[in-house]
């Protein structure tokens, strides 16, 4: 009880100090607005919003404002994806894909206003559930993480990359792993962290410092999106928005169990390293379909179905920040972009992070979620107008933004060459259905894996038993082996046979 | 999507996987060979003895590229088993589509030459204006002729800038490449203006002019960030006016 009160008082003082600064509101309102716009425009994503803003602000503005802008855009973009999903049947972001199942049918039934209002409320409650979880669990994990040493960190990084590869693959799981390994391989470029041995620099001095995170993020997420988006795209037939947007409190009360369950699922999925909001949405939708009394109507315009995915994808934000802040392992692709922003602001997420920063993040999340809700309920029609802008008009501007952002962070043309190279590679990977998120997570966690793995071996004098003798490391190793084995066709066949026998 | 389409998509995907696996095998083999350049046993760097295998800088890359090599072989086997090798050299396998090739090729030329040729050497406002005009004009209607026209409009000034001012010492001045970019932008805008003037066509010149101007000024003077080519034709004038005439207004 005392712990909770301490937490709340810390949060309260962080909230007060932020909310008493007028500049806070300028950054908050504009970043949430921009986030919703990025989410609402198909082809732009939350990750892209954070990446572009990272390049735009760099480390030239105070850290608090930078965090407000980035978290505001994150919260706004995940929510903003629901607009085209409900009105056009085109998911604005991958996170809203599950929302299309019931959002569009509801709009066609003339309940678009109601759907948007409920989505906004569910997103608000979902974000708050994730934020409360962040406030509570981050400290529990911080206490545990004090005992996490190099072997656990190395295996955790590897587990994060493999899990991301496994869950983000649309086609073969092996492709997700390959993408993760390509990211790891990219992280090997430059001076090695222990002996300063140059690796794969080919005599180019720029590569001595390795691949910079921001140009890689810009290349991986922005360039393929721009190339892919520059097609003649007919804007789908937009359903006329009917009914009032302000939600009915009775309806919200009635669906509160669904919202609470989806919030918990979303937060839990978010806390898994490198998975993300889209997976959270689908998992919550799947669970909802099997446990909800309205399950048979899922896909036909069910309010329950709509709330399942929309609550979960926003709750995932808080969840994704837990491993990021505690362990330095991003819980989702946008969180990976956030990590890049933290890094250029000289904040090293992990067990040594300043607790004050965590409290500020929580306070910003609460402020951002309420700002998002107010904007969503009272200015929805502005965002609906924005949906009419064709991709071929805004994507060229995004290209300019990406270029200037990538240049300004590193301050060199070489960063642009890197962005271009990574961008073309990522485009072809997209074309071949390789997930890009594991690649980025591999780049971000590669350095950590390399350093901690070798440090473990140095400490144990080359004894690989160090990864088994420590309980935490042993559990992680078992999880990694189980994860890999679970994807092998032979093992899957055996399990299928065992299941048949059991039946 | 019906079943037939799904099967076709999978066939194309497996054929491409076959090629991708070959490329990945070659790349991972190359980097495994490059890893042999990093001392694995008995290295001594900066006075630190790296005599043990486990302290070597090669140990993790060796594992990463070996794993990549093995997974690529698995992918190759999967692709062959799914019939990817059989269709690999057919039009289906390569997934050749003339329109898509033109689309990707022209986007590649526009973005590639913009970053490699123009951004380092030409005023950023000018080359961004040209980029925005080229992309909107070329791709808004999906007409291949327009795409090619846009690619040419970007290629000519970029190629000139590359050919005439390749070394870094010549990036800041003279401004002949800036002028050529401006001419290319004006010509492309005029061509666009001659076509059907829908709302997008009417808005393009304004967007192409205002967006980069606003972004560069906000970045340079608002957030004090680094912007490309500060000595460019337009930005150098803006910067001069800002520091000499505008800033003193509130400084004094």
Automatic annotation (TrEMBL), chain A:
The chain crosses the membrane at residues 25-53, 65-83, 122-142, 176-195, 207-227, 357-380, 392-410, 471-491. Residues 27-441 form the DUF112 domain. This is DUF112 domain-containing protein. Keywords: Membrane, Transmembrane, Transmembrane helix. The keyword Membrane applies. InterPro entries: DUF112_TM. The lineage of its organism: Bacteria, Pseudomonadati, Pseudomonadota, Gammaproteobacteria, Chromatiales. Signal peptide: none annotated.
């Amino acid at each position: 009880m005392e712990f909770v009160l301490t937490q709340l008082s810390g949060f309260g003082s962080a909230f007060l100090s932020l909310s008493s600064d007028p500049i806070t509101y300028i950054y908050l309102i504009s970043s949430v607005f921009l986030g919703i716009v990025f989410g609402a425009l198909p082809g732009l994503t939350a990750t892209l919003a954070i990446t572009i803003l990272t390049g735009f602000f760099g480390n030239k503005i105070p850290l608090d404002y930078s965090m407000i802008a980035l978290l505001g855009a994150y919260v706004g973009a995940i929510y903003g994806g629901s607009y085209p999903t409900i009105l056009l049947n085109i998911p604005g972001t991958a996170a809203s894909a599950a929302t299309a199942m019931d959002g569009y049918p509801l709009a066609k039934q003339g309940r678009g206003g109601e759907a948007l209002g409920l989505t906004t409320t569910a997103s608000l409650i979902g974000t708050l559930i994730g934020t409360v979880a962040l406030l509570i669990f981050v400290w529990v994990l911080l206490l545990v993480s004090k005992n996490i040493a190099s072997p656990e960190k190395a295996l955790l990084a590897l587990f994060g990359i493999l899990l991301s590869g496994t869950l983000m693959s649309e086609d073969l799981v092996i492709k997700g792993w390959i993408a993760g390994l390509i990211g790891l391989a990219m992280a090997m470029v430059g001076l090695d962290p222990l002996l300063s041995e140059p690796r794969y620099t080919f005599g180019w001095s720029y590569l001595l410092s390795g691949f910079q995170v921001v140009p890689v993020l810009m290349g991986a997420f922005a360039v393929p999106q721009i190339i892919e988006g520059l097609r003649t795209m007919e804007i789908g037939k937009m359903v006329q928005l009917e009914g009032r947007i302000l939600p009915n409190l009775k309806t919200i009360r009635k669906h509160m169990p669904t919202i609470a369950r989806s919030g918990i699922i979303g937060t839990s999925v978010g806390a898994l390293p490198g998975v993300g909001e889209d997976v959270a949405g689908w998992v919550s939708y799947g669970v909802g379909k099997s446990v909800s009394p309205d399950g048979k109507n899922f896909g036909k315009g069910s309010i329950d179905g709509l709330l399942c995915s929309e609550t979960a994808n926003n709750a995932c934000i808080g969840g994704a920040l837990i491993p990021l802040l505690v362990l330095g392992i991003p819980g989702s692709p946008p969180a990976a972009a956030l990590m890049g922003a933290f890094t250029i602001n000289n904040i090293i997420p992990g067990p040594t992070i300043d607790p004050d920063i965590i409290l500020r993040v929580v306070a910003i999340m609460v402020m951002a979620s309420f700002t998002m809700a107010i904007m969503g309920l009272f200015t929805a029609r502005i965002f609906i107008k924005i949906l009419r802008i064709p991709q071929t008009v805004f994507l060229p501007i995004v290209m300019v933004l990406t270029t200037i952002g990538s240049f300004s962070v590193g301050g060199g043309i070489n960063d642009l060459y890197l962005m271009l190279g990574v961008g073309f590679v990522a485009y072809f990977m997209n074309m071949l259905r390789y997930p890009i998120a594991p690649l980025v997570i591999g780049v971000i966690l590669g350095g950590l894996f390399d350093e901690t793995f070798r440090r473990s071996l140095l400490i144990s004098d080359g004894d690989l038993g160090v990864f088994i003798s420590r309980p935490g490391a042993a559990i992680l190793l078992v999880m990694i082996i189980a994860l890999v084995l679970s994807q092998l066709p032979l093992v899957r066949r055996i399990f299928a046979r065992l299941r048949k026998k059991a039946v | 999507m019906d079943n037939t389409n799904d099967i076709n998509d999978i066939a194309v995907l497996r054929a491409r996987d076959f090629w991708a696996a070959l490329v990945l095998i070659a790349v991972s083999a190359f980097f495994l060979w490059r890893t042999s350049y990093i001392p694995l046993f008995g290295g001594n760097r900066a006075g630190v003895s790296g005599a043990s295998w486990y302290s070597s800088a090669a140990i993790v890359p060796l594992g990463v590229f070996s794993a990549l090599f093995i997974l690529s072989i698995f992918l190759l086997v999967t692709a062959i088993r799914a019939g990817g090798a059989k269709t690999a050299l057919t039009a289906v396998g390569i997934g050749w589509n003339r329109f898509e090739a033109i689309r990707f090729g022209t986007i590649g030329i526009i973005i590639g030459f913009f970053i490699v040729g123009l951004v380092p050497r030409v005023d950023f406002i000018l080359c961004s204006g040209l980029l925005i005009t080229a992309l909107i004009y070329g791709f808004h209607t999906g007409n291949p002729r327009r795409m090619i026209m846009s690619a040419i409009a970007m290629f000519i000034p970029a190629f000139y800038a590359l050919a005439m001012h390749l070394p870094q010492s010549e990036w800041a001045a003279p401004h002949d490449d800036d002028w050529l970019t401006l001419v290319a932008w004006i010509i492309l805008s005029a061509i666009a203006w001659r076509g059907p003037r829908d709302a997008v066509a009417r808005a393009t010149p304004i967007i192409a002019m205002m967006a980069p101007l606003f972004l560069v000024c906000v970045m340079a003077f608002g957030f004090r960030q680094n912007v490309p080519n500060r000595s460019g034709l337009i930005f150098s004038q803006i910067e001069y006016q800002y520091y000499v005439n505008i800033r003193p207004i509130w400084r004094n």
